[in-house]
Each structure stands twice: as C-alpha cells, then as structure tokens.
Design brief:
The structure is a single chain. The protein contains two helices and 16 strands. By secondary structure, it is mostly beta strands. The chain has one domain: Jelly Rolls, CATH 2.60.120.10. The strands form five sheets. It has a seven-stranded antiparallel beta sheet with strand order 1-4-5-6-14-9-12, with no helix packed on it. The protein has a three-stranded antiparallel beta sheet with strand order 11-10-13, with no helix packed on it. A two-stranded antiparallel ribbon has the order 2-3. The structure holds D-sorbitol-6-phosphate (S6P) and zinc ion (ZN).
Length: 212
C-alpha cells in the first residue's frame, strides 16, 4: 500500500520537497519517521504472505482477522535518476509468523549497485545473497553501518522484541527487483526464533519454486 502526500493520516506533516535544491529532513531514530516525508509505504502481512515459509501460520493469522503491519517505510522526494542518492527509512515490527521473524520482502536492484544501511534502533540481521549464490549475514543495530555490494540481494529481519529501524541509501536509478529472488523460492536462508536466540537455517522453499 503506497500512500502519497495528500492521502494519509499524516498529511499535516507532509511538505513536498524538491531535490533540485538542498533540503533537510528530521530523522526520528526511535520510530523511523522522516519529517517531512513525501510518500510512505505500509506493508501488512497480506501484502507479502508468500514471503514466509510457514503458510499454515500465515493463513491462521489472516483467518483470525489480524493483518499485522510487517514494516513501514518513509521516503523523501528524490528523483529516480543516476546522479541522485535515494534514501528511505524502514521500521520492521517485532513478531513472528510461525517461528520466522518479521522481515522485509527482500530484493536485488535492477542495476547492480551498492547500498548503505545505518541502524537506528532495535536489533536485527541482514541476510545477503549474491547472484552467484554467496551468502552473508550481518547484525544490524544502532550505529552499525552495513555496506551492501553491487549484485547482492538483501533482506532485513527484526530479531528483537521492539521495532527495528534503519536508514538505507542507494543510487537513484538502481530500481528494485523482487522477482529475481521470489522466482526461485526466496533467499537460501531464513531467520527463526530459537530457544537461545535467532537461528539461521536453510530455507525449505528455496528452489521449490523455479523459473518456468
Ligand atoms: C531500498 C532498501 C530498503 C528496503 C526496505 C524494504 O533499496 O533496501 O530501504 O526497500 O527495507 O525492503 P523491501 O525488500 O521489502 O523493499
Ligand atoms: Zn535495496
């Protein structure tokens, strides 16, 4: 669900920015909100149901009438052009679907290009997977900066009991490609709540869905 300036309950805080001139925004490290922002995206479970491994758990949550917000992002108005630096904040709620932690959908960039993440509050794990299948996991926490090299798909997982907020900056023309990972059943590893903390295990859905 994408909300543009002018159609959300936060309208009173929205000012249309112009990135043709310098601008600044206020960043709330606890909530992840940008003030002002130009657009926001709210991703409920029903919007990304297939991302989670335990489909019975997904159906059970949705059948109960609940549709938790998995994450929310705030965007300033930066053009999708090569010389611009796009950035946004994301807040992932705390929780699990079955035992799998709430997480982002995860993507490649259409143009393989680097991205920078800065942790603001909460704790989590970034799962990264290169086009040739190399894997990396990095802990994301306040003041931690994570460099995502070109060609590495990335997904962020909230492994804590409070919301995980972070800022990400990437090339304006990078684009977001969700299909490349989803067409093969998603990332090779998933993050679950274990008795002694987060557990990373091989995904059962990986390669179950193959390109046709
Ligand atoms: C953008 C950057 C992040 C994600 C956000 C949501 O390039 O990687 O800001 O967009 O965390 O993730 P996703 O995979 O659902 O778009
Ligand atoms: Zn990205």
């Amino acid at each position: 669900m994408v909300c543009k300036a002018g159609d959300s309950e936060f309208d009173q805080d929205v000012t249309v920015l112009s990135a043709s001139r310098p601008f600044s925004v206020a960043l709330d490290f606890a909530t992840g909100s940008l003030t002002p922002y130009s657009a926001s995206l709210v991703r409920p479970l029903s919007d990304m149901a297939s991302a989670f491994e335990d489909q019975a758990a997904v159906e059970s949550i949705l059948a109960s009438g609940d549709d938790p917000v998995i994450y929310r992002s705030y965007y300033p108005d930066v053009p999708n052009e090569p010389d611009h630096l796009a950035f946004l904040t994301t807040t992932i709620s705390a929780g699990t679907v079955g035992s799998e932690f709430f997480m982002t959908r995860g993507h490649h960039h259409y143009r393989d290009s680097a991205e920078l993440y800065v942790g603001m509050s909460g704790e989590g794990i970034m799962v990264m997977e290169s086009r040739r299948g190399d894997l990396s996991q990095q802990e994301l926490a306040p003041s931690v900066v994570i460099y995502v090299p070109p060609g590495w798909a990335h997904r962020t997982v909230n492994t804590g009991n409070v919301p995980l907020t972070f800022l990400a900056a990437y090339y304006g023309d990078a684009g977001h490609d969700y299909g490349a990972m989803e067409s093969t059943g998603g990332f090779s590893i998933r993050v679950y709540r274990g008795d002694d903390g987060p557990q990373l295990r091989r995904s059962a859905t990986r390669d179950r869905v193959g390109p046709s």
